[in-house]
Design a protein that fits this description.
Number of domains: 6
CATH class of the largest domain: Mainly Beta
Protein name: CUB domain protein
CATH architecture of the largest domain: Sandwich
Number of helices: 10
Strand order of the largest sheet: 12-13-15-21-17-18
Helix content: 10-25%
Keywords: Disulfide bond, Membrane, Transmembrane, Transmembrane helix
Oligomer: single chain
CATH superfamily of the largest domain: Spermadhesin, CUB domain
Pfam family, one: CUB
Structural class: alpha+beta
Length: 1010
């Protein structure tokens, strides 16, 4: 029995051990624990009940509607039958005028239920047939139109109109459809092409509002006005012959005017006048579908002759009002062609015609001149074109006889305008007698103000500016001219001209009213000479021939430019600009634009500009070149040399390429009293620039110095002119080094744009310096013992930077060290320059380009900041950095970043808030993500530690099979009482204590074996 009891206990112990070694069951998700089957079943059951209720409601509503529909249809069956029997209608000549409408209803029933809506049969079709009498047309005008649908989609209800039917029995299915309409946009006035017009109403609606339908009036009108002349292809055709012998005046109507004209249709009208007559066409009303500028769809084409091979006067479409056209000869042909374009209702046209011999004779007006042509389609408009510096004449109509009344002639004078040619127009009247006042004795002899001249009966207007010419060519009713002339003007009067255009074109207009005035003298009208001269587009006084680019400027201020500026200058051109002042004056030139042709590097000076100072020596001119400028340099401000009161600018281009050219402004101002100021001054010198600068002489005690712009390092001002002259001792030269340069402009190794401010140094490698990169100024030694430095700013507005600081050093070039062995001298190692020993270790590099040997091996006091940083890093290297140190570095970095951001934010626009908002949003998002992941990570660590503690409490230490401890003694495990421990040690087969957790012990007895 005792052995069986011991075996039972061993089995129990083994079972507990297996349970402890088996893995813990996985934890269900929170959602699964929160929900159970009862809740899920309740939710599904509720959804099923809701769906059933919705279905019941839908079927109930459908039954109610079907019931009402059936009841309503039953009550309306009588009215539908009546409606079918009265739907189709025929209107004939018995009633030449009347009304038509839909719906057509008998007496309204007394039941109020159908007062608002009416019910129509399915697929209802009503046909309204209009039949006019012989030689009549049908005209329809709609007063009310309201059908279902829209003009873009006619599916439920619509009206079809057939207006091109020849017979009542015509098949509508094969007939041409004139248009389909629905919605609220009613059809335009419709006129039939023949005697018959059919209107068909279609409806698929079951119930419509009573306001739906249409209403209109019809009438039968005679078709006499549509017979423009003699029919050429039968009475039903649309080709007519109109002869002056039958009718001198008349009108041509499009086939169905004012109704919408037929599609895919063609009409022609041939007009024939008598010998000596011309034909005038006036478009009183014109509305043809506009499909583009060249009228690719519907159009009216007028030919200046009897066939389509004759010259075209004009091809028109769209809307035209009060258009007037003239033929040159006695015949004209009009073609009207239509297609099937997008949906539109154009009404067609009405063109009035007139045959007359009173119109201006074109041949007599031109006088057979080459380059003078008549503008086709006009009565007497003339265009005069240059053939490169040619001369022509223009005349009034019938000159030298009396001009005709009610005539307006426009003369367009066009000079050459192209890449290589640009001309101006010079107009001079040789004869002028255009009378406009009843007092025929008036003769204009004095050069009156042109604004005081009034010409009510006849006039000659001259348009020179672009705006005036545009207004004159677009309308002749209210034209304003720069000059208006009339009456008889003698040859000595300056009113005869010359009148010079500002561009390549000038417009002259001659006009008369129905009242003609004559003085009995001969000739009448005018004769004018038109000359075309080369125009360089320069405003100065021309001092050469017409094809020479020579201009003089003497006004106190002004501008000059390259030929044709701002357009590209012509190739192979040479221009000279003479800017002349008086003794005691000085000339300032500054450039507003400078863009010469940019070719390859070796071709950079194919086009160039040179500036010269002009000196007068005993009546002889002496030119001294200031500088030549090519495509890589924008010249800075410049002044004439001291003693020169004239300047000359020469521009030259070759045949390689062209650019926009240049525009320069000049001022003639009082000259300076001294070439180099005796002392530096910032006082203004009268009407000119601020004058500053001085003479500097090097000496043994002053072997070096600095030249600085005014107010350096504060901003310089506009209109500054400074000159410095540095002179070294005999045998010495000057070394110049740029210490700092902040001058407006841009300068690189290959180009310089010094438009607003410039530094010029005589003998320097480059003629001008500007910009903010002082490295472009390479230190150099002058060729003699003196150098001149100039600083100029534009008289216009300048931004004003800090300016410049340039150092100079007196040096002596030697070949051997023995030549610079004195104790008062120092020999530069690389540049081989001998400088004063006073300059050794003075803090400035005085040995020249890439030679700083005079400043090497000199003690230097290091900056306290760098020393502090070195101490900090040296201490950091000796000790292990702590976490506090890392935190300090991080906080410092953040503070530094914030300071830099604030400093940069001050420079940004206050309105730029988008970046700030985006930054705050991104920062908040990033912070949220970081906090969220930190929380997850913390929760995971806590769960892991909790599992470890639980696992440790359940672990049992393996014990030996035979314990050496005395039986009955207590062991270290306080969870088991001593007797139980003794029994287990002697009878357990494994020697391992079963896992007994604290919470298990608390819920059971304190002894392992009961």
């Amino acid at each position: 029995m005792e052995r069986m009891r011991t075996l039972e206990r061993v089995v129990e112990t083994r079972i507990d051990l297996l349970e402890w070694e088996s893995p813990a069951p996985k934890e269900d998700c929170a959602a699964c624990r929160a929900l159970d089957c009862d809740i899920i079943f309740a939710l599904l059951f509720t959804m099923v009940i809701a769906c059933l209720l919705v279905l019941i409601m839908v079927f109930w509503l459908k039954g109610v509607l079907q019931y009402e529909d059936t009841n309503y249809v039953a009550r309306e069956h009588l009215w539908q039958s009546s409606l079918r029997s009265e739907c189709d209608r025929v209107f004939d000549e018995k009633n030449p005028r009347g009304e038509f409408q839909f719906p057509l209803l008998p007496k309204e029933p007394t039941d109020n239920s159908i007062e608002k809506n009416i019910t129509l049969p399915r697929n209802l079709q009503c046909v309204y047939t209009f039949v006019a009498g012989p030689r009549q047309r049908v005209k329809l005008e709609f007063e009310h139109f309201h059908l279902a649908g829209s003009s873009e989609s006619c599916e439920i209800e619509y009206v079809d109109i057939y207006s091109e039917l020849e017979r009542v029995e015509s098949d509508l299915l094969s007939a041409s459809l004139g248009g389909r309409y629905c919605g609220t946009v009613s059809p335009h006035v419709r006129i039939s092409l023949h005697r018959v017009l059919v209107l068909v109403f279609h409806s698929r609606a079951r119930e419509v509002d009573r306001q739906f339908g249409f209403r209109g009036r019809y009438s039968f009108i005679p078709d006499t006005k549509y017979q423009a002349g003699i029919p050429l292809n039968g009475e039903d055709g649309c080709d007519f012959l109109i002869e002056a012998s039958k009718r001198k005046k008349g009108a041509i109507f499009s086939p169905t005017y004012p109704g919408t004209y037929p599609k895919n249709f063609h009409c022609s009208y041939l007009l024939k006048g008598r010998a000596g007559q011309r034909i005038r066409l006036f478009f009183r009303d014109f509305d043809i579908y506009f499909g583009g500028e060249h009228c690719p769809y519907d159009s009216v084409t007028i030919f200046d002759g009897p066939t389509t091979s004759s010259p075209i006067i004009k091809k028109v479409c769209g809307l035209q009002q009060r258009t007037e056209l003239y033929s040159v000869g006695t015949e004209a042909l009009i073609h009207f062609n239509t297609t099937n374009p997008a949906k539109a209702d154009p009404r067609g046209f009405v063109v009035e015609y007139e045959f007359s011999s009173r119109f201006v004779d074109v041949a007599q007006l031109l006088h057979g001149q080459k380059g003078v042509t008549h503008m086709r389609g006009t009565e007497c408009d003339v265009r005069v074109e240059s053939n490169r510096e040619t001369t022509h004449y223009i005349y009034s109509p019938k000159y030298p006889e009396m001009y005709p009344p009610n005539t307006t002639c426009t003369y367009i004078l066009d000079g050459l305008q192209g890449d290589q040619n640009l001309e101006k127009v010079i107009l001079t009247f040789e004869e002028f007698a255009v009378l406009s006042d009843d007092d025929s004795a008036i003769v204009v002899t004095d050069p009156l103000s042109l604004d005081d001249i009034t010409c009510p009966a006849a006039w000659v207007g001259i348009a020179i500016s672009d705006a005036t010419m545009k207004a004159t060519l677009s309308s002749t009713d209210e034209s304003n001219f720069e000059s208006t002339l009339c009456e008889r003007i003698p040859s000595s009067s300056p009113l005869r001209g010359p009148y010079v255009s500002t561009g390549p074109r000038m417009v002259v207009q001659f006009g008369t009213t129905d009242k003609l005035i004559t003085d009995g003298l001969h000739p009448s009208g005018f004769k004018a000479k038109v000359e075309f001269k080369t125009d360089f587009g320069v405003t100065g006084e021309s001092i050469g021939t017409s094809n020479e680019c020579l201009f003089r400027f003497r006004s106190p201020m002004g501008f000059f430019n390259s030929p044709r500026y701002p357009a590209n200058y012509p190739l192979d051109t040479n221009c000279t600009y003479f800017i002349e002042g008086k003794p005691g004056q000085q000339i300032l030139i500054h450039f507003e634009q400078f863009a010469l042709y940019v070719g390859k590097d070796e071709d950079r000076c194919k086009d160039w500009l040179e500036i010269y100072d002009v000196f007068q020596d005993s009546g002889d001119e002496r030119l001294v070149l200031q500088e030549r400028y090519c495509s890589d340099t924008l010249p800075g401000p410049t002044v004439s040399a001291f003693g020169a009161y004239a300047m000359r600018v020469v521009f030259s281009s070759d045949s390689t390429g062209s650019g926009n050219g240049f525009k320069a402004l000049y001022e003639i101002r009082p000259a300076a009293k001294e070439d180099i100021p005796s002392h530096e001054t910032k006082e203004p010198r009268g009407e000119g620039a601020y004058r500053c600068g001085r003479r500097i002489r090097a000496s043994e005690t002053t072997p070096t110095g600095f030249v600085m712009s005014p107010n350096y390092p504060v901003k310089y001002n506009k209109d500054v002119h400074c000159d410095w002259e540095i002179t070294a001792r005999d045998g010495y030269r000057i070394l110049l080094t740029m210490v700092k340069m902040e001058i407006e402009g841009e300068m690189t190794a290959s180009k310089a744009h010094c438009q607003k401010a410039v530094i010029r140094v005589s003998g320097a490698p480059r003629p001008e310096y500007c910009g903010t990169n002082q490295n472009v100024f390479t230190p150099f030694v002058t060729k003699n013992n003196s150098v001149r430095i100039s600083f100029l700013t534009s008289p216009d507005k300048v931004n004003g930077l800090k300016g410049f600081n340039m150092s100079w050093t007196e040096v002596r070039e030697v070949k051997e060290m023995s030549e610079c062995s004195s104790s008062s001298e120092y020999m530069c190692t690389y540049s081989k320059l001998c400088i004063s020993s006073m300059l050794r270790c003075n803090g400035d590099a005085n040995c020249g380009y890439q030679d700083d040997t005079d400043e090497t091996h000199c003690a230097r006091v290091q900056s306290s900041v760098y020393g502090s940083l070195s101490l900090l890093f040296s201490n950091s290297a000796m000790h292990q950095p702590s976490i506090t140190t890392y935190w300090l570095v991080a906080v410092s970095s953040i503070l530094l970043t914030v300071c830099c951001a604030n400093n940069g934010a001050r420079k940004e626009s206050s309105t730029d808030k988008t970046i700030v908002i985006a930054g705050v949003f991104c920062g908040g998002t990033f912070l949220f993500i970081c906090i969220f992941f930190c929380y997850l990570f913390k929760s995971k660590l806590e769960r892991k530690k909790k599992r470890q503690r639980s696992h440790g409490s359940r672990h049992r230490h393996r014990q030996p099979y035979r314990s050496q401890k005395p039986v009955g003694k207590s062991i270290a495990d306080s969870e088991l009482p001593s007797p139980a421990t003794s029994r287990f040690v002697h009878h357990d087969a494994t020697g391992i204590l079963p896992p007994i957790t604290l919470h298990t012990i608390a819920d059971q007895d304190q002894t392992f074996y009961g």
